[in-house]
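Hi everyone,

Forwarding the result from last night's run.
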Amino acid sequence: METRKRDLIRAFVRGGILSPADLLRIIGLSRKLGNRYIMFGSRQDIMFPSNGADPNFLTSAFRAIGIDFEVGSDQSEYQNIVSSYAAVHITETTPWVKEDTYHFVIDNFDFRPKLKINIVDPAQTIVPLFTGELNFIASREENYWYLYLRNGNRVECWPTMIFTQDIAKIAKILEELVLTFPAASVDELFTLVQARGRITSRPIREVLAYPETVMPYYEGFNAMLNNLYSLGLYWRNNRYDADFMSAACRLCQETNIPKINIIPWKAFVIKGIKSADRIRWEKLMGKFGINERHSSLELNWHLPVLDNEALELKRFLVRELDQQDISTYGLTFTIKTKRDMFFFTSIVIEKSVAIENAERYNILYALDFNPNNIVYQVYAQNVPKEVIPALLIELSKLYFRQLNPEREAVSPGTKAATPVGVLTSYQCTNCLTIYDKNYGDPFANIPPGVPFEDLPETYTCHVCDSPKREFRAVGGKGG
């Protein structure tokens, strides 16, 4: 019998941080329910089938572990708190944001959030910035955070920065207000919060800046910035073997590793492995036949949980791209088949309606290929599965052509000087392929910077060969 999302137990691992002992207890509970694996969610939670377990038994078991849980819901009542704790010592981070900073903030939450809450460092690239409904993002001023409210594809910045000690306090107040007044603007919410009591804040002195979203290669052994090692592990099917995971937890305990980190890419990272202990980890992975070095094409995909259709499409695309020997380094991908999703990848493959019983897909890409910009543009629409690899190859080439480390960072809600796809884009009315002057058309030997109006009349769409007259001016597209 196929497991459905509403049959899953979700263990809310706050911040994606838990001890080996707690993970062992969760694995043990999954075993008691007849499972041989656990799964990870994009909001750093742990999931496994409930198999009809008695609710009272589950309540008692999770209370003993000290972790909140939810079971039997397509639309979750509660949400996990996401953090970029895993990035500390692995990637560049804001100097004052330490592991203890995350612990302090998360420990101050005395309620179960119903809104998605993110606590993230903008200097790192492992954890997306704006996938929450309340996004607390570290500023360069010590102990002060930007706050961005997200509603669908609209992201608005809070008028002031929030003090570290008040993050949980304002999150609790805002959750009540947002759920009571869902249509309220940020300015209206700001007035209501001020009426509730004192929140330590500071004026925003500079616009939030963040780097290009180039994902680090997190899998396998990697040197940390503190002369230790991290080990990242990834399973293609997101079913992490209970026997191996239990052995890994015990080895963490034996080698004095206090925490295990879940990351949004449905993988986990163990930080702080000593050089002397590395051989023990290598032997453990060898014993269980663990592959620690998947192709970079395999990583950095966001798929819905328990979605076999999305998994099969990913396998097809990875296989086809691998045969083309194409580089996708720096790019991230989402496959959307059914449910509404917050996009946090640079490219989205979105299932469209069936045409004459044949599945069709839309291809979207983020403004500047940076999902932190929120805005998504349509690159192609209603294309068959077999055409997608060629389109992804085109997009990867466009991505590398537009890389510009000197580009000024643009905060969501502010306007770029010349945003890609706004007043510079023309779209084929037949296959909806975009011509953008910022990129040109490498397939027609047209360099970046050539306006559509200056293209020769013989220009044709490189996807469907439609003539220039079939293109129409377009603006930015929402995801």
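The CA atoms of residues 63 and 355 lie 50 Å apart.

Cheers,
N.
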